[in-house]
Amino acid sequence: MKVRSEQELAEVLAGANAPVRIQGGGTRDIGGPVSGEVLEVGICGVELYEPEALTLVARAGTPLAEIEAVLAGEGQRLAFEPMDHRVLLGTKGEPTIGGVIAANVSGPRRILAGAARDFALGARFVDGSGRVIKNGGRVMKNVTGYDLVKLMAGSWGTLGVLTEVSLKVLAMPETEATLVARGKDAAEGIAALSAALGSPWDITGAAHLDPGVAGPESETRVRIEGLAASVDYRIGALQREICVGWEVFRDDDSVALWRQVRDVAPFADEPVVWRLSVKPSAAPEISEALGVVGLGHAALYDWGGGLIWIAPGPGHDDAGAQAIRAQIAAHGGHATLVKAPADLRARIDVFQPQTGAVAALSRGLKQQFDPRGILNPGLMG
Q1: Whose CA is closest to 8, among 30, 48, 39, 46?
Q2: pLDDT tens-digit series, residues 301-354
């Protein structure tokens, strides 16, 4: 079933007597399998764009490519650099802005700009009872009660179905450049990334790729963006202070390097891929410990080591879940099984299991916004 207006969506959910699987562009087959009729959100169109105010309002089903084209026409962009999951998951369709916000999809630039939720100014959505709810607005401000915009970001359609989002956008930089070193182990690479991120040079990308991920040698990458003269100055400073002898890639060559990281393209042919959010300083130790317990893997480290993408080798009935979650328990953070066959996702916790007060809070929110439990039941556990 496809709905094309907020009113139609509200009527469908109010009258629903069985679970529904919420779908935007159908590009993110992530989470536990959901039994229920597919409800496709086809509520499309850019409603308002004020370049001078750096704000855009769009209906949730608007293709991401359409929004990016509109922004590019005014020399602007989405600062949080959302991943295109089609590359990793092998899915079809078109990513939508509602799906991006619902999944809080944030790419390499998050280390400086922030996450998708940080740029969501307001939202309209329909909850599991068919109520239309509006929260936030077109400018950032403090609000009392629930910050529902932030709550919806990362809820994966389990609390409500987005129909409209208001976003802050930013100017597109004049140019970019990336410094690349080869041959460093994970500890050395992440130490270099930490030093670069601790410098005053506004790093917008910091990644380390294990040997065999993007080539026979490891690669450590640092990105700078901005006005051409500023980029040249900061690249020079980094080469003198931290990135001595690193190779420089500019413009389109730099863009290609970060699109590869953003979309986790090197793992496109892997059947199982995990996403770990951890302390950057703990990332090399976690990766090494996984190898010690027999979970052979390749790793791609983004966000200066704070985000680890892992493709475990074959031979693990649980896709490495026990070993990975043991490391999360020891070091903190959370792990998500982003890519795996549906039967595996049906018997393993895809998202990090919640305990204690967090689990109780989640149950309370679910009861308030989806008391009948019809929105994507089982997707998040």
Answers
A1: 39
A2: 999 999 999 999 887 889 999 999 999 999 999 999 999 999 999 999 999 999
Place of tokens 């409603």: 47
pLDDT of 282 reads 98
Q: Which residues contact 13 (CB under 8 A, 6 or more apart)?
A: 20, 126, 127, 128, 129, 130, 161, 374, 375
Question: Rounded distance, CA 116 to CA 122, Å?
Answer: 12
pTM tops 0.85, yes or no: yes
Given a cut of 80, whether residue 47 has pLDDT beyond it is yes
Secondary structure element (H or E) that encloses residue 358, with its range: helix 356-369
Ordered by where they begin, the domains of the chain are 2-171 (3.30.465.10), 175-262 (3.30.70.2190), 265-347 (3.30.70.120)
pLDDT over threshold 50, residue 144:
no
Cα angle, residue 42 at apex, residues 38 and 44 outer, rounded to 5°: 160
Stated length of the chain: 381
The identity of residue 267, as a single letter, is: F
Query: What's the pLDDT score for residue 60?
Result: 98
User: How many other C-beta atoms are found inside a 10 Å radius of the C-beta of residue 270?
Assistant: 18
- Chain-centre distance of CA 92, in angstroms? 18
Q: Which two tokens stand for residue 73?
A: 């026409």
Residue 163, both tokens: 């129909």
**pLDDT on residue 135:** 83
**Ramachandran region, residue 64 (left: φ > 0; alpha: ψ -120 to 50; beta: rest):** alpha
Q: Say which amino acid occupies 115.
A: A
CB crowding 8-33: b at 16 or more within 10 Å, else e: ebbebbeebeebbbbbbbbbbebbbe
- The DSSP annotation for 294-329 comes to T--EEEEEEGGGTEEEEEEPS--TTTTHHHHHHHHH
